[in-house]
Amino acid sequence: MNLTNKAVTLHDMSLRDGMHAKQHQITLQQMIDIATGLDDAGMPMIEVTHGDGLGGASLNYGFAAHSDEDYLKAVIPKLRQAKVSALLLPGIGTVDHLRMAKDLGVSCIRVATHCTEADVSEQHIGLSAKLGLDTVGFLMMAHMISAEQLLEQAKLMESYGANCIYCTDSAGFMLPDEVTAKIGLLRQHLSDKTEIGFHGHHNLAMGVANSLAAIEAGASRIDGSVAGLGAGAGNTPLEVLVAVLDRMGAKHNIDLYKIMDVAEDLVVPMMDQPIRVDRDSLTLGYAGVYSSFLLFAKRAEARHGVSARDILVELGKRGTVGGQEDMIEDLALDMARQEL
Ligand SMILES: C[C@H](O)CC(=O)C(=O)O
Ligand SMILES: [Mn+2]
């Protein structure tokens, strides 16, 4: 694989996907310290919101330590060069959230839908583009459909005004060949002006390999998290990816030692549990389950004595997708009754 001189924009997820791993309890000071550390290391883009995006704080997804507004107000004025993005899932986040984010200095809105539901993103993508924001369409759980179906959904988002489309491996299920096929087809058929992105989860330890496959196939934006802080076994660990990209001669503008230090000195010490491939997070990748379900399944295990692994396997069989968090408790209760 030759990535010499390939330009890649890395996008940090620690302060948004990492919110899942922290049950949305990152403090304002932790956000500021990590964001400014990343800014100083040269990270061009940093995402900041509740784990489920703008407006995610709720009974279904979990309440956050602070509002999205407070996190954005705390972080954005402290940054020297990094741009801040906000995730928005239509139906959870509203156009009012979007306008609020723009007013606070967010420059990129990433509108996320399940991979078959791009049609619900028209209003939010349209408004974001109209407001002149960097507008991304983010297709989640992309392993559940074929490359051709993903392309159809991507074209919808592109037609609504997105200037970048993401193939999102929410379950950390994909292997590099699948990433190559999906990103390759998007690159071939979307407009040359539309950027392609890849968002990985490390449940099968494929985060770095899949990101390299994505870049080779034409992706120019790659998501990851410092020390992998993210849902499941975490996102593609950015400091590792940076080291690999350095060795391959790709261009990313990030200082390796500085990002290593952010990982080691700031992010690892604040983890509530080690972010690693263990039997439960591995099951997410193996069974193709939404990574944010991990802690819900672990909590249900503690409450009802049913193994989180069994719950996750069953969620995979049922084809559950993001937004169905409330089903996890119901399922665990049913499974506990059957075991009596
Ligand atoms: C709302 C999700 O956490 C978005 C995401 O990061 C993914 O699908 O992966
Ligand atoms: Mn994710």
UniProtKB/TrEMBL annotation:
| Limits of the Pyruvate carboxyltransferase domain | 8-260
| Keyword terms | Aromatic hydrocarbons catabolism, Lyase, Manganese, Metal-binding
PROSITE patterns given for it?
A: PYR_CT
Q: What does the entry list as the binding residues for substrate?
A: 16-17, 170, 199, 290
For the site Transition state stabilizer, which positions are given? 16
Documented EC number(s): 4.1.3.39
Where does the chain cross the membrane?
none
Which segment of the chain is annotated as a signal peptide?
none
Catalytic residues, per the record, are 20 (proton acceptor)
Q: Looking at its record, which EC class is this enzyme?
A: lyase
Q: Which CDD domains match?
A: DRE_TIM_HOA (cd07943)
Give an example GO molecular function. Answer: manganese ion binding
Residues involved in Mn(2+) binding: 17, 199, 201
Query: Which reaction is catalysed here?
Result: (S)-4-hydroxy-2-oxopentanoate = acetaldehyde + pyruvate
SUPFAM superfamilies given in the database record: Aldolase, post-HMGL domain-like
Superkingdom, taxonomy of origin = Bacteria
GO BP terms: namely: L-leucine biosynthetic process
Please name the NCBIfam families in this protein's record. Answer: 4OH_2_O_val_ald (TIGR03217), PRK08195.1 (NF006049)
Membership in a protein family: Belongs to the 4-hydroxy-2-oxovalerate aldolase family.
Q: Which HAMAP family match?
A: HOA
Name of protein: 4-hydroxy-2-oxovalerate aldolase
The organism's lineage is: Bacteria, Pseudomonadati, Pseudomonadota, Gammaproteobacteria, Alteromonadales
